[in-house]
Amino acid sequence: MENNNRRYFKSLEELNSPESIQPKEFESGTPGKNVVEESDFDLKSSRRDFLKFMGFGISAATLAACTKTPVKKAIPYAVKPHEVDPGVPNYYASYYGDGGYGVLVKTREGRPIKIEGNDLDPLSLGGTTAAGQASVLSLYDEGRLKAPVKNGVETTWEVVDKEVYSGLRKITANGGKIAILSNGIDSPSTLRAIAKFKETHPSTVHVQYDAVSYAGIRDAYASSIGRSIIPSYDISKAKTIVSFNADFLGTWLSPLVFTKQYSSVRDVTASEDMAYHVQFESHLSLTGSKADLRIPCKPSEQGAAMVAVYNELASMAGASKAGNPGSFNPHCTSEKIKHVAKELWDSRHEGALVLSGSNDSNEQSLCIEINKLLGSYGKTIDSNKEVNLFSGNDREMKGLISDMKNGGVSALIVYGANPSYNYPDAAAFNEGLAKVELTVSLSDRLDETSQKVTYVAPDHHWLESWNDHNPVKGQYNLSQPTIPNIFNTRQAQESILSWGKAYGKYYDFIRETWMMESGAMSTRGFETFWKQTLHDGVYVEGRAHSDAASNSVAHEDVNTEHADHVTEMVSDTTVTRVGLLAAARNTISGERSLGESIRDVRHGREEVSETTNSHSVTSTSSSTDTYDNSSIIGGSVDVTSIASTLISAKNNASDTEITLYQKTGIMDGKFSNNPWLLELPDSVSKVAWDNYACISPVFASENGYQDGDLISVTAGNTTIENVPVLLMPGQLSGTISIALGYGRNMDSQAGRVANGVGINVYSLVELKDTKRYHTSGSISKTGSGYELAKTQTHHHIQIPAGLQKQDRPSTVQRKADIVKETSLGTLVAYRGSKGHGGDHGHDDHGHGHGSAPVDKVYAGKGDQPEKYKHLNIYPEWKDTNNYYKALHWGMSVNLNTCTGCNACVVACQSENNIPVVGKEEVMRRRELHWLRIDRYFATPDKKEEDRDILYTDNPSVMFQPLMCQHCDNAPCENVCPVNAINHSSEGINQQIYNRCMGTRYCANNCPYKVRRFNWFAYYDNEKFNYNFTMNSGLGRMVLNPDVTVRARGVMEKCNFCTQRIQAAKLVAKTENRALRDGDVQTACQQACPANAIQFGNTNDPHSKVSKVKQGDLSYRLVELLNTNNSVYYTTQVRNVKLESEMPVEDTHETVEAH
Amino acid sequence: MVHNLKFLGNMFVKRLLSGFCSLLIASFFLFGQPAQAADVVNGEKLFKANCNSCHIMGRPMTGPNLEKVGERWAGKEELLYTWIKNPPKAKAAGDPYLTDLLSTWEPKSGLMAAQAVSDEEIADILEYVNTWTPPVVEVPKETETQGSGLTWDENLMILGVILVVLLMILGLIFNIKKRIERLIKEKEGAGETPPSPIEILIDELKDFVTTQMNPTLLVLTVGGIVTLPVLLLLYSNGQDLGAQIGYAPDQPIKFSHKLHAGQYGIDCQYCHTGVEKSKNANIPSPNICMNCHVAVQSGPKYGTEEISKIYAAIGYDPGTGNYTGETKPIEWVRIHNLPDHVYFNHQQHVVAGNLDCENCHGNVKEMEVVQQVSLLEMGWCIDCHKETEVEVDNNYYQEHFHQVFADDYNEYVEKLSDDEKEGMTLTKFVKEHKKYTIGDLGGLECQRCHY
């Protein structure tokens, strides 16, 4: 069937003119152009020149050889800390507050060098995010303030403390108003510190404010059930997930948690249970990319679409409809709405979940109503397990600013917030700020706000701080310092406390909070409890502490990944599990639980009545939580009026609508001075180092926009100039979207990397009762020729010409050998016909060559030809040298659960000392990421003239993490003239930097384009000073000492984290045992929040990777090439239910390889 | 990490236990000795066994200096005996001298513990203490200059060459003398005289070279003979360029391994604590030195001069016995240097490979100043990896390399007669016949050390 084929493309260039992106022999060119003058190439050397050069060369070499070997020093500690052993990493449990999840911090010789997931944290379950991985680099950012500042000049703490305190005292005495403006705080002790401050300065108000606000949800719950909360959503219990513009896998609320949950209901390698996911959105988000059914929908239509879904559900439930939403854009048909409603209704018993990403409380209220109809409360939503992240309140912020402008505020202390940068009406804030008598900031750098205040009392980095956190009800995390403060900074809470005349260490203050709240517990009991919590990094009400901690006295085999110093503590208190539970119970059944009093502090200002706040904390001492969600059912909201508001919003929208979104790396821009994050290509657009206006290609061709045009964007009274345009498939016609978090304008020191990168669009955020991240407006073209660092066409996988089909452009051609997808229906039918489940029972674990013959669901003709499977490019060598007989490392990547979140890319960069090359170099295709995530679009493969709106407005999307494939028949190996690449007996393609002389033949010959060439000395090179991991003494502290910093002129690539393999082997040998599956975790695998990456010994039939490899969804890239890759991909499966959306199997006939 | 600590903890407990046991046995043994009347030798033994942990002769330590204690207690011997056996009782007696003494020492070190010694033993100890005289401090002699560093053979060879050259010159001079003599004789009219044999020989040689030989060839031959060895020498020595065998730089503290490791037999790992658990062996931090040097304040060779550098580094005041908190790390000169692109791990070699320190570091016990004895070049590493057999008993190898072992075994057994096959189990084969070297099991691959 003609339209059964699908067309895969990585970029519009590839789709429209494939020839233009055909890689040249050496795809990243030579650096000649920018280094050498044209005239330098006129080399006419005479014999005398030759002799001169020879003479110089020989004497220079002689001189160089005469230099004395440098004397190196070995300087031991003066007093060695007993828990530090040089060369051995220590792990400390902590909490990454800006992502809201627990982590382990790997330190070497007292320096944090890597962030890793904490398995014991029920939120993250060992996963991390890109921003969390990168946050370790911010610790070594020289842009941080090195001392307190008064009026822009460095001063001492004594001066700041004295003047701030006397200023505050004067204001308090005169009855002036003091305001503490912070970001949303989930830390009980910080809230208590502020309360303590209020005791001394009673006229203090505390306003919380988030750059990206979730106040809409809180408002909706306040009006629905009288409690201003964000509930817990549990996607892992959902059978059908419908999201209205909530990018829950990328940026919304708590993406790490949702990714974990989502991956658990989307993995079909072993089961056929797969949740159905529908996404309504205008901007192609990470979440939309993974959806089974993506319904493009303008921002203004989303509320109305929700009304339409509500109406359908209401009619099924026998309730009344809420008004007629009318019709939508052509993608959003009434059939689709009906279908979505029916799916939701059908799965209401198993678990349905509707999410809204809007910050409009009306939309959120309607979302609550829909979930009520579906009975989601108590199943997929838990309104009693409140999420304490993002507790900012937009109305209070607005009130504060108008107060400030009226001169009603005498002192302002800013903590963790940066309104001069990210408040939509920053001008009003600045105006107000100028009228405040005493202004203090606790920011760690001279950012936009702290440049304008009198005193800056710089806060520690989170890796230098003590803190406690209460991300969701019933869970308490601790963060602990992993390094003493590098600069002369001070913990913000200590500053607040000391200005409130409550001096002391914040550490003691936290312990005091915890001890106070845990009631009657004995000191000894508390010590035990505290140390356990510190060890685990987390305490969950009703859950025992980790086995690792509580059994460490008895067990030899304790979890080696946890902070060692705690072992010692634990061993002198002989903890038993029973004792611990008792301790936990003590905490809960104390007079008031920790949770209760914190909530009181948090919501005291909400004036929540005691009756609605009743919850069953005291009864949750048993481990099974019983939640009462009945209160949510009873609440009543006027659906009709909400619906009419939403419908009128749709009808009144202008032609062009603007969505403001966040990118997975930079997020709200708080930590944008981080080169790892700036260089990280956006998951979907694959653009690094910029933000831009995403415009639909169809809209662009109709209205005359091109890639690289500069436009001005106007919404209301705000106009933003010079926004570069990016034609983005998946962007709905008539809408544009721009990422927040760019366009920083800090002091040049503080923002060395981020300043001037991209454009700040926070002023486009609409200020209504809550902030709205979509708006109506208009755009107009003002210029052109702006270049974006697009990486999507780099590293193009080449399929040899002989294997191409003749009638189509070559690059679009054989993508089916690279990315494979199928539908759940096909998979189920296939498995039914084979009469087995997902788990293949093959015992053959194929030593040596190739994989066992496994029936694959896609079984295309593009597979590895059977007759060549035994072929080996080094037969004698590999047969006689014990190759692959002992260990054969392999990796599997589950394309189905991978969300393209980029955590692995940053983890790899952090683990392997990968330099940042900068925008210019990225544009020259020289980015050095060893692991990239390829993003493919797919559309039905129709003829050219049919390429209409349906194509590029709503393509389906696939992500494919691509690292070195470690081919057993590696084409790169035998073209190296100096044998700098060879194969290990464990199947690793080894790159030897010291042998490499940079011919780049290997990169040229690599079919998968995973080799990266080091064009310049990226270290000690002021031209690359944004690469501060290697260009400042401080930045170098983040480098992994077990991995070489590569020199100029060598090829580098993924090596399966050899350093980790070797370390694990050494542990096994020392312990006189074999390696166990899971002993070796690569950096990407460890970081992955979706468990999409598995790594292990493929010779072991019981290893996870072997099982995946044997599975019927597993395939390797372009098997036709017979390169025998060691990386296995798992076919993407979409749970397609609508006929029109059906992806289809690759059916094209293959030219047999010769 | 946790494991490492536990391991260390266990070690510590074990050491503590064994130390305690030996102390117990030693004391039992000592106390069991029948005492002799005022025996200085026995007194010294007893002093070292019982008193030395707090008292040191010649200066105060935890307790006061006991030098000539008899003079100070003259007339109060009974009280002294009581004091040794039952300090609280003696204290209660309220002797002014003792009270005064206690006012300085008790706050610092507490009251002395009661000593289980008999009166006879006390007499012996007092005899030793009272007759003790400070040992004469040995002034370190200037060590003799070590000569030019050439061996006898080399000297002989140089002498030989000089002799040959001298002989040749002698011959030439003799030749010239003969010729001149002949010429004079001819001038004087003595007629032709026959040339001497040595002249004939030289003339013949000259003729041969100028007429019979190709001068180009000659130049090439002679040049070749000269340059080839030079090139060879360059090549072989050039390989070791940068290798620092014998590198023994001056260290900031003249620490003697010969004394500590050799004479006192201190285990390498007592100071180099990382050797079994880390890639780094660790140069000990001064707090490890202080384990002993809080008591040993003077060394046999340099007296207090070098040891005081430790105190300066860790901020210890030997006068008061207090730590000042002002530390200054010692900047040792690193002797064993590997390039940055090499990953070397001590744990791998010492624990998994079961190597002794001496294998690479030489006989450190004999080194006054530590020097590099091994090449520490890749060739040197590889040679060892090619030759050293792997400990196949380790379960790691047993479980992962069974396929390798089995394949080799099958191949081997096939060639055996039926009788020989009997009893040739796989285990036996692996252990006895096939000696697996590190290289056989992948230890020569690049990425074992370079990543």
Description:
The complex is a heterodimer of chains A (1154) and B (451). In chain A, helix 9 links the parallel strand 12 and strand 13 (293-296). In chain A, 30% of the residues lie in helices and 17% in strands. The model of chain A is unreliable at 547-628, 805-813, 837-855, 943-950 and 1143-1154 (pLDDT under 50). Chain A is globular and about 85 Å long. Chain A has 1154 residues and is of the alpha/beta class. A 7-stranded mixed β-sheet of chain A has the order 7-6-18-17-16-8-9, with helices on both faces. Chain B is mainly alpha-helical and 451 residues long. Chain B is 54% helix and 1% strand. Chain B is built from 21 helices and 3 strands. Chain B has helices at 2-32, 40-51, 69-72, 77-85, 87-92, 96-109, 119-131, 152-187, 197-212, 215-239, 257-263, 268-271, 286-293, 307-314, 346-352, 358-361, 378-387, 395-400, 402-414, 418-421, 426-433, and strands at 316-317, 322-323, 332-333. In chain B, strands 1-2 form a two-stranded antiparallel ribbon. The longest helix of chain B is centred in the middle third of the chain and has 36 residues, at 152-187. In chain B, 18% of the residues are buried. Residues 1-9, 23-36 and 142-148 of chain B have low confidence and may be disordered. Classes of the chains: A alpha/beta (1154), B mainly alpha (451).
Strand and helix layout:
The complex is a heterodimer of chains A (1154) and B (451).
Chain A: E1 6-9, H1 12-16, H2 32-35, H3 47-66, E2 73-74, E3 90-96, E4 101-108, E5 111-117, H4 130-139, E6 149-150, E7 153-154, H5 157-173, E8 178-182, H6 188-200, E9 204-208, H7 215-225, E10 230-233, E11 240-244, H8 255-266, E12 276-281, H9 286-290, E13 293-296, H10 299-317, H11 334-346, E14 352-356, H12 361-373, E15 381-387, H13 394-405, E16 411-415, H14 419-422, H15 426-435, E17 438-441, E18 455-456, E19 467-469, E20 475-479, H16 492-499, H17 506-517, H18 523-536, E21 538-540, H19 547-550, H20 564-571, H21 577-589, H22 594-603, H23 630-634, H24 639-651, E22 656-661, H25 675-679, E23 687-688, E24 693-695, H26 697-703, E25 710-715, E26 718-727, E27 735-739, E28 766-767, E29 771-772, E30 774-783, E31 789-790, H27 810-813, E32 821-823, H28 824-834, H29 875-880, E33 889-894, H30 903-911, H31 919-923, E34 932-940, H32 949-953, E35 956-962, E36 981-983, E37 989-991, H33 1001-1005, E38 1012-1013, H34 1028-1031, E39 1051-1052, H35 1058-1070, H36 1083-1087, E40 1093-1097, H37 1104-1110, E41 1114-1115, E42 1127-1130, E43 1132-1134
Parallel strand pairs in A: 8-9, 8-16, 11-12, 11-14, 12-13, 16-17, 17-18, 22-27, 24-26, 32-43, 33-42
Antiparallel strand pairs in A: 1-34, 3-4, 4-5, 6-7, 6-18, 10-15, 19-20, 20-21, 22-30, 23-31, 24-27, 25-26, 25-30, 28-29, 33-40, 34-35, 36-37, 38-39, 41-42
Helix pairs in contact in A: 4-30, 6-16, 6-17, 6-22, 7-12, 10-11, 10-12, 10-24, 12-24, 13-15, 18-20, 18-21
Chain B: H1 2-32, H2 40-51, H3 69-72, H4 77-85, H5 87-92, H6 96-109, H7 119-131, H8 152-187, H9 197-212, H10 215-239, H11 257-263, H12 268-271, H13 286-293, H14 307-314, E1 316-317, E2 322-323, E3 332-333, H15 346-352, H16 358-361, H17 378-387, H18 395-400, H19 402-414, H20 418-421, H21 426-433
Antiparallel strand pairs in B: 1-2
Helix pairs in contact in B: 2-7, 13-14
